[in-house]
Structure formats: structure tokens, C-alpha cells
Amino acid sequence: MENSNLEDTIVAISTPYGKSGIGVVRLSGNDSLKIALKMFFPLNKNFKIKSNSMILGNVDLGEVTDKCFMVYFKNPKSFTGEDVVEFQCHGGLAVTQRIVEKCLSLGARLAMPGEFSKRAFLNGKMSLDQAEGVIDTINAETESELKASNSLEKGILTATISVMQDSIVDLLSEIEVNLDYPEHDIEYKTKENIIEQLKKILGKISTLLNTQKQGKFIRNGINVAIIGKTNVGKSSLLNALLGTDYAIVTDVEGTTRDIVIGSLEYKGFKFNFLDTAGIRNTKDKVESIGIEKSKKALNESDIVLLILDGSRKFEKQDYENLKMIENKKALIILNKCDLKIIDRPDKEYIMVSAKENINTDEIKEKIYQIALNDCNQNEKIILTNLRHIEILSQAKIMIEKILKSGINNSLDCISLDVRELWEKLGEITGETVSEVIIDRIFSKFCLGK
Known about the structure:
Strand content: 15-25%
Order of helices and strands: EEHEEEEHEHHHHHHEHEEHEHEEHHHH
């Protein structure tokens, strides 16, 4: 963060802009209480300001005042680890903005995005991955995102990484003793212990990395392509799944020309349904582009729903579509079960009626089961952060390299590799990460956090 001075007292609105019952303005820094007492006057004249206490009073905004609460947190027992004052005033842009302007006139500086959280990190109130958990919690839209971010915020990943780093420190200590006292000839046993401990760390890292598929579903949602011939009920099924008239439905073939995306949450996970153009041979240039997009969506989706019209005899295109999904995770949907069923696929299928909303909940459950079939949802840590995944992937490669060839090297060379591993893991918690990375992470935070 350029122009960031930790000696400054900073101020910002911590609640979203707009009308609300309560608005919060936060001050942090050595002069927080001094600034606050120049503009806030308790209704109880005899009240003595105490840490972690809330007091009712009036804040002087020049021509107007606002009755509000002031809360004081004395360092280090605050979010940032510094003196912090919060004004809990009437919500609305006019009041909160005037309080900020008053604080600025009394010597505070406007905080930059994420600066409160950055100060909390620099003052040892949270690790870097915990800070990332905070922003993930703010941005969470589904229950699974909230659970994943909550585990980060609680420091579960920090604790896991710290255990690994402690084991590495023990190894480094053992290596140093061996190097300092070579006459004891214990190098062979030291190398055996290095192999044993690194294999344990490798196992823990592999367990974490095995959660990244589930983490991808949590982060991006499960992408489900709805494909089939024209007029088999793809858009009707999308509307039934979403419980709303989201896509245009007509009897005209080729109504859907482009990808229509609709989302819902099911058991804490986001399902992104991609309603595609009907696949068929056509000379219409616009429709042809839509069909190519349909095929691309099929290839890039996590799961495919192939819709067949059971009230009509299957045609060549139906069988070609069945062949297209052979190597994909897919569900075959036999639509229009409210009508007389004439044809059925020679494979497992779900019979539904998009029009009458019959068995659509079964589709959601099947999608959930297929997507998460090989995921262990009982893991305490699910990797959703790409930075963490990249660091752990690099650490895994480093360990495998040491185990493969490093053990044949001298202990001083092994010591350098092991020390580098310790530093790599420290990038997750922020213990060894560069200032550039720290600034990049906190710049993603909202103003006032």
C-alpha cells in the first residue's frame, strides 16, 4: 500500500454506503481517542472513558449533531492491535460522511482499502491466511463458502502449517548438531530421520491438495451444461430447476441462440446451469454459432444434463448426443413424463416433466452426489485459495526433490533445501512473504475493513 504510514491515525466508514439503521465509522491509531474526545460528548457528564465500553452521547458535526454510541478499544486488545474508536451512528451517507470529515479535520487520515486488516496482520493479530479468510467471509455467497472461509479465519490452516514448520525447525537443529559435531558420526541416522519427517509432511500437504477439487466447486460453483436437441425442453427444465421463468420458452425450434446461465444454491453449493442452444444441423449462421457454444459448454462443464424427449421417437441427433457424453460426468433426463412415453434410452436415466415440475429435486440431488462423489466433506480445511494451492504445490515438489536426490547430498546442502522449504510454507501465513504480495492481498479488501 503506497503512502501507508503506520504512525498515522486512520478513519473510514466500515458499513456499506446507503441507508441503514446503524452506520459505523472506525478510527485506528495512537490518536484515536484524542480525536474522538474532541468531537464526542457523553450524555453522562461524569462518565469516565474505559476500554471495551460503550457510551451514549452526541457527536458534534458543526451545524448539526448526531446522537450515537462511541466504543473504545485500548491497544493491544482491538482488531488492529492499536487504539481503536468506533462511532455507531444513524445509518446514511450524510451522517457517516460528516463524521469522517470531522475526524480528518482533527488530524486523521482516510484509510486505504484493507488498511485496518493489514495493521491487524502487521501487529500480529492474525496471520496472512486468516486475513484472506476475513475477505472470503465478506464475499461468501453460499454456506460452503462461509464454512471454508470460517476455517481459514479461525486459523486452522495456520496451525497446520505451523506444525509442519516446527518439524522442519527440529530437522534443521538436528542437522546443525551433526555438522557441529561430525566426530559423533550420526549422519546416517540424521538422514533417516529427515526422510521420515519429510514423508510425514508430504502426506499432510498431499491431503490438503486433495481438497482443491472440492475447493474449486466452493469457489466457482458446479457448472452444469444442459444440452439436447431443439425443443426437448431444455429452457423449461432450467426454469423448473430455478423455480422462475428465467429463460424464454416457445414452441419455435431454435429459440435459445446463446448460453443462458442461471444459478441456485443446493446443500451449501452453487449450481451454475448453462442452458444451451439446441444441437442440430442448421444453415442459420447465428444458430450455428450458438450450437458451437453449446459443444464448448459441454466440454468445459463439470456435469452434463442431456435432455431427451420421451414423448417422441428418438432421432439420429439424439443418439449422436448420447455418444457425445460418453466420457463426461452426465445425467440423462427423459423429459415430458406427463405425456405418453414412446421411447427410452438404453441407459440409466431420470424421468421428469419440466412443465409440471416433476422429479426436478432428484436432478439436483444427483448433481450433488456426482460432483462430490470423490470429495471428503469432513475435512476441516478445504483449499479454496489459489495462492495457498500454488504454494503447497511448490512445497510438495521441493520435498519430492529432496527425497529423490537430496539425501545423497551432504548435510549442509540438504540443510539449504530444508530451510527453503520452511520459507516456502511461511508464505502462506505471511511469515516469509514479500511486502508486494502483502499489499496485493490487502488491496482486495473493501474500504473500512
